[in-house]
Amino acid sequence: MYGHITDFNDKPLKSFILIKPDAFEDACGVWSDKNGYYEIELPERVYNAFYINDGNYKSTTLEAWSWHMVIDNEQQLDYKIGTGEVYNLHVWPNNGGYNSLFLSFRPMVLKSKDPSHLSQMVNEKEFNCIDIAPELSIKDFKITINGEETEIFSLQKYFETGKNIAMPAYLIQVKRLKPTFGKQTICVEYNKPPIESNGKKAVQNSMGYFQFYPNYSGMSAYY
Questions:
Q1: Burial state string for 160-188 with b = 16 or more CB within 10 A and e = fewer than 16
Q2: Which residues contact 10 (CB under 8 A, 6 or more apart)?
Q3: Which residues have C-beta within 8 Å of that of residue 162, sequence separation ≥ 6?
Q4: Angle at alpha carbon of residue 111, lines to 103 and 9, rounded to 5°
Q5: What residue spans define the domains of the chain?
Q6: What is the model's pTM?
Q7: Per residue in 20-64, pLDDT tens?
């Protein structure tokens, strides 16, 4: 696996990529060079997540993430690191319905102050809502399937919940592109126009990947 790591202005970033095979333990990793180029060899398998950090986490940037990554051949994965995250991304086909995919993720964005804790009612239950998400609209997104931009049908906000905690998340429905078989690499990118606050302009942007086989039937399907 190899690629190039930059910011959202195409400035190369020396960064490190950590490999998380099953949960959130770090199994291995590699630094890019000073021009943002990296290369790493990995065993063939499905990986829970890849984590990309330029060393300025919570200072000027957050992290780029990849989820459910299928490493079954050589592939190029380029990353942009911004002030937000595409966290907990998951993608699945709308089988039996419209020719579309569902995408679910929880966005996070770098805050200039500690996040607000608000009371949020969900299904008549009160949750402590941690407000670290940007307010996003369809025009803020670019979503590609195997490198080709797809149409966004709808964007719906919901809350990801635990026992007493809630955090804003989004459900997006996009047009499914051909071919609908074989490995699908989904890239979700948001880049919100600068917001002026206290005389400063703040940008909110991030990107992330998700990979899957639509009709997965075991490892032998692609090994």
A1: bbeeeebbbbbebbbebbeeeeeebbbbb
A2: none
A3: none
A4: 70
A5: 2-221
A6: 0.90
A7: 999 888 889 999 999 999 999 999 999 999 999 999 988 889 999
